[in-house]
Amino acid sequence: QDAIDRKEKRSETFKTAVHGLETDTPALKTEELGRRAPQWVRDNLVTMCMRCREPFNAITRRRHHCRACGYVVCARCSDYKAELQYDGNRPNRVCQECFIFLTGHTVLEDREGKHKGILEKGAAEVSSRSLLCSSLQLLDKNGKGGTRGWFVIPQDDPLVLYIYAAPQDVRAHTSIPLLGYHVRDMPQSESRHLFQLVQSRQVFTFVADTEELKQRWMKAMARSAAGITHPEEEEEEDADE
């Protein structure tokens, strides 16, 4: 009975772990793990390990794929071998979570005490339950350069804008509390669709890919800045006016 309980617990844990991939990347069902080859998450969709959340680099932290779940992980998080049925029961590189699930072995955790912070929400999971999400560019203060990333306003945290480096990252690199900001339209400049968030001396300038996307973001940010967390609230305000 104890073995059954442990297996069921691992199953539930893994179900939550394999959710959150983009809609065009179907996750394996728990019972298919190791029995069917996974669809790999593309390298260019992540900038950090999908398990430990440490950024990748070309020298000390390179990208690897877990052969069981398809996640992009670093060498440390994929330093495990498990026999996979779809590959003739040959040992394959897998991530720690898949190793535990497939073998039943426990692994000593060396990152105890590391609490999940406000930014540690996976981009794919948040995007699937968002008010709006897309690629945008955030310009620097002089307006000549900037950072392109994946921007999300979550349904369960609608007053905050989360900024990810890539749409599959498991941790946002920054966030902007939207409440109290003013959304300012800007004229099109060199085919760039610009708009700003302004509060006192704090100004954020964004570039959208299209005018239609720009208008959608301006509307979504204006709602959040006004503290409107549900569409029904906006309809009530319009009726009052």
UniProtKB/TrEMBL annotation:
The record ties this protein, via Gene3D superfamilies, to:
Pleckstrin-homology domain (PH domain)/Phosphotyrosine-binding domain (PTB) (2.30.29.30), Zinc/RING finger domain, C3HC4 (zinc finger) (3.30.40.10)
Name all PH domain ranges: 129-226
Where does the FYVE-type domain lie? 43-103
| Major site of localization recorded for this protein | cytoplasm
Q: Which Pfam families match?
A: FYVE, PH
Q: Which GO terms describe its biological process?
A: cytoskeleton organization; filopodium assembly
Which keywords are on file for this protein?
Cytoplasm, Cytoskeleton, Guanine-nucleotide releasing factor, Metal-binding, Phosphoprotein, Repeat, Zinc, Zinc-finger
Where found, per UniProt? Cytoplasm, Cytoskeleton
For whether the record's keyword set contains Zinc, the answer is: yes
Q: Which SUPFAM superfamilies match?
A: FYVE/PHD zinc finger (SSF57903), PH domain-like (SSF50729)
* InterPro entries cross-referenced by the UniProt entry: FGD1-4_PH2 (IPR035941), FYVE_RhoGEF_PH (IPR051092), PH-like_dom_sf (IPR011993), PH_domain (IPR001849), Znf_FYVE (IPR000306), Znf_FYVE-rel (IPR017455), Znf_FYVE_PHD (IPR011011), Znf_RING/FYVE/PHD (IPR013083)
Membrane-spanning segments = none
GO molecular function ontology, one term from the record? zinc ion binding
The record's Gene Ontology cellular component field reads:
cytoplasm; cytoskeleton
UniProt superkingdom: Eukaryota
Any idea what this protein is called? FGD2 protein
